[in-house]
Amino acid sequence: MTKYLIILSICLAFGCKEESAPPTSAELLNQMEIINDQIEAMLSTSCSASSQCMVSAFGAKPCGGPWKYIIHSTNMNLQKFRSLLVQYNSLNAQYNEVAGIGSDCSIANKPEVECVSGNCQEVTN
Questions:
Q1: pLDDT digits (tens, 9 = 90+) for 44-76
Q2: For the chain, N or C: smaller number of CB within 10 Å?
Q3: Is the CB of residue 80 less than 8 Å from the CB of residue 42?
Q4: From CA 31, how far away is CA 125, in angstroms rounded?
Q5: 55 DSSP β-pair partners
Q6: What is the tally of helices (H) and strands (E) in the chain?
Q7: How deeply is 18 buried, as exposed, middle or buried, from its count of CB atoms within 10 A (0-12, 13-18, 19+)?
């Protein structure tokens, strides 16, 4: 009995807490969808010069690398955009692990972009 009181006292003093269950694949997908919607809502491709055009990695393939690249301009809140991408990519990596997702391990090609008619667009050579 004394042993249990000591353990209880230690837990109360140092804040012992139960470990929470890892998120399910459905929970991860839901979180990814919410963040994807936020990314799409703030996405801008408007530009006046090609120097304003960028591409960012989107998603996390099980073999490594992104699922695709998103074309966007610098005419938006880049700090928030990058933060959302990091969150999304991290959740996607977790989802791959939890759901046992595989891929063909192909590498997504990073597109070349330029400002064409006021919008950042992929340029084909």
A1: 999 999 999 999 999 999 999 999 999 999 999
A2: C
A3: yes
A4: 37
A5: 71
A6: 3, 4
A7: exposed
Length of the chain measured in residues? 125
Q: Do residues 45 and 94 touch, judged by C-beta distance below 8 A?
A: no
CA atoms of 103 and 99, how far apart (whole Å): 12
Which uninterrupted H or E stretch holds 67?
none
Give the Å distances, CA to CA, from 45 to 33, 42, 55.
Answer: 21, 10, 10
Token code pair at residue 77 = 């809140």
CA dihedral 118, 56, 66, 87 (to 10 degrees): -130
CA gap 10, 80 in Å, rounded:
41
The answer, as to whether pTM is greater than 0.70, is yes
Sequence-ordered list of residues with C-beta below 8 angstroms from that of 81, at least 6 positions apart, any chain: 39, 42, 43, 56, 72
